[in-house]
């Protein structure tokens, strides 16, 4: 943990402890009952799913006694029933109207929306025999694991990027932090490699993905726990996008902001309307600092950090495109509206958003690389200032 200039303190250790603590909780005494969910989903038994939901649902009085960790564990377990019912076209609140007040209170207590998020589904989901799933399939278990392996390293990288914002380019520490990010981010990429190897694209597109559909509460939709809720956009934000003017990407980031961990949200807000790292270093390299090799090393290391995003986004886009290529043809579907749903991710976006974000990432990498070559070009103004 570093001190002072930041208004927010985030500790990776405390987040890891929080994950373990919430995973171990079972405030609804649902450990056994929740294991029925995959079987009920296979049978499409919505009546039993509703009964199970009613069974585990805490009273308002109980919810008032919960702390934020118990509230989070309760939302996790209720969430498996919400997503399951929605997958079978049942809007939960239409069957259980008191759901709204209860989920609102649980959401308020946990500092998150009134339904389950990716955090509940993955890092707050217990392991082994207590693991909660919608289907119990290996594909789903691997999908959860692929996010779990990526999440903590991504959070560490974000915290390191914050530190980089305060580190002078002209110091060996800058390159050292970039190298740390580089090593950690390999784990994030590992998550994608695992999903590519272990999750069948057609099973994802035609089955798993529907458990992450939005549900209605408070007369609006709340998104389901898709991997799109990873704080990858916070990493982008600090590195290259806090001052990016692209409206589509700004809307994308703000759509998912409420669904990420409150600590990550604070980091996001801290850098809102501030220069990104790439813009900052480009401004510096563009005439404000004397050439030296240490700065050049720092700039090159930052460029390597940006390229990490490409190494994540290119294979991920491939997975997403492959999955959506496996969606059933509209003529094979009984409900034509399903076709529209099937071609969009859990956030309601098509895979075009992935191309768009990748293009923006590439533009920023090009901009940084141009700064680097100007910085070291022998016949530039910079070089003359060295003489
Ligand atoms: C079968 C596996 C997967 C498929 C088909 C898939 C598909 C998609 C789609 C269609 C989007 C667009 C947004 C939306 O959901 O509406 C998206 C976004 C995203 N997904 Fe996945 N995904 C998969 C696995 C993963 C995994 C394992 C991770 C992380 C370890 C991940 C991380 C992300 C992120 C960070 C975004 C936001 C866009 C970006 O930052 O580039 N996805 N995904």
Automatic annotation (TrEMBL):
Signal peptide: none
Classification via InterPro entries: PrnB, Trp/Indoleamine_2_3_dOase-like
Domain of life: Bacteria
Entries under SUPFAM superfamilies matching the protein: Indolic compounds 2,3-dioxygenase-like
Pfam families: PrnB
Full protein name: DUF1864 family protein
Species this chain originates from: Xanthocytophaga flava
